[in-house]
Amino acid sequence: MLKGRLGLDTARVPHADRHGLIWLDRGELCVVSGCLHFVAGKDSLTPYDLQVPHQAVSMILLGPGSSVTHDALRLLARHGTLLAAVGQDGVRSYTAPPLMPDRSDIARRQAELWGNPRRRISVARKMYALRLGEVLPHRNLDTLRGIEGARVKTTYRLMAQRHGIEWHGRRYDRQNPTAADIPNQAINHAATAVQAVAAIAVQSLAAIPQLGFIHEDSGQAFVLDIADLYRDSLTLKIAFTAAKKAETDSQTIDRLVRREAGALFRRENIVGAMIETIKQVLRMEEADGAGSCGDA
């Protein structure tokens, strides 16, 4: 009885031919005459109704102040369009219900690399090479982690000097996070923001968050792997820029970090960059050449 009620039953556009992500906030995602609409500003002087091209995008990021109807969820699921609930400017990722991606090539490739101990450490070494700028000869994960940890301490100090921030070392008490000084609090907030955008990138490719190559125990292990690749170029840049602003700005450090992160994510198209990084880490070009999977 409901077949075709919310659009053409056979309509389906492959994700390889879609146009990425669309971000919406403060409105209702609903279905009007079989089409997806985002209705916002009902009680304002400038209400608007946006028809959303749900078959032409891979993922909809739904921001604060928004709601979604049952019909909208059903329409998105039918066309394989992912929906994620995110924070202001996308600097938090709360949930992304799986809506059945149209391909499994990324997930299969990730599982293939993760399931082979030799190939798994090879991917981990490649990720460290992307972060550290050189291929380390070591093949023991604990040794690689130790080398990274030593270099990170130096990076913190140099980045703090570059931004004119007084630095007393990395300190973080999970039980009392606000006890840390402003630079350390800024790093904590920035890391959360970067992890959120990494989660969006992982979700948009239908990769498996639990199968990390460096991180292991977390249910978001692969997300943490990808976020760590951007620690120097993104996380610390956001954190120390916000910490410097906090010296003269009365806003909370959390708010300063959120604004800095949101602006940087949009300006530098970080989600798109992370998607390409994930493909590079999983060596999708190599997999394509071997004929084991198609386009992402």
Automatic annotation (TrEMBL):
<protein>
    <recommendedName>
        <fullName>CRISPR-associated endonuclease Cas1</fullName>
        <ecNumber>3.1.-.-</ecNumber>
    </recommendedName>
</protein>
<keyword id="KW-0460">Magnesium</keyword>
<dbReference type="InterPro" id="IPR019851">
    <property type="entry name" value="CRISPR-assoc_Cas1_ECOLI"/>
</dbReference>
<keyword id="KW-0540">Nuclease</keyword>
<comment type="function">
    <text>CRISPR (clustered regularly interspaced short palindromic repeat), is an adaptive immune system that provides protection against mobile genetic elements (viruses, transposable elements and conjugative plasmids). CRISPR clusters contain spacers, sequences complementary to antecedent mobile elements, and target invading nucleic acids. CRISPR clusters are transcribed and processed into CRISPR RNA (crRNA). Acts as a dsDNA endonuclease. Involved in the integration of spacer DNA into the CRISPR cassette.</text>
</comment>
<dbReference type="InterPro" id="IPR050646">
    <property type="entry name" value="Cas1"/>
</dbReference>
<keyword id="KW-0378">Hydrolase</keyword>
<keyword id="KW-0238">DNA-binding</keyword>
<dbReference type="GO" id="GO:0004519">
    <property type="term" value="F:endonuclease activity"/>
</dbReference>
<keyword id="KW-0464">Manganese</keyword>
<comment type="subunit">
    <text>Homodimer, forms a heterotetramer with a Cas2 homodimer.</text>
</comment>
<keyword id="KW-0051">Antiviral defense</keyword>
<feature type="binding site">
    <location>
        <position position="215"/>
    </location>
    <ligand>
        <name>Mn(2+)</name>
    </ligand>
</feature>
<keyword id="KW-0479">Metal-binding</keyword>
<dbReference type="InterPro" id="IPR002729">
    <property type="entry name" value="CRISPR-assoc_Cas1"/>
</dbReference>
<feature type="binding site">
    <location>
        <position position="228"/>
    </location>
    <ligand>
        <name>Mn(2+)</name>
    </ligand>
</feature>
<feature type="binding site">
    <location>
        <position position="148"/>
    </location>
    <ligand>
        <name>Mn(2+)</name>
    </ligand>
</feature>
<keyword id="KW-0255">Endonuclease</keyword>
<dbReference type="Pfam" id="PF01867">
    <property type="entry name" value="Cas_Cas1"/>
</dbReference>
<comment type="similarity">
    <text>Belongs to the CRISPR-associated endonuclease Cas1 family.</text>
</comment>
<dbReference type="InterPro" id="IPR042206">
    <property type="entry name" value="CRISPR-assoc_Cas1_C"/>
</dbReference>
<dbReference type="InterPro" id="IPR042211">
    <property type="entry name" value="CRISPR-assoc_Cas1_N"/>
</dbReference>
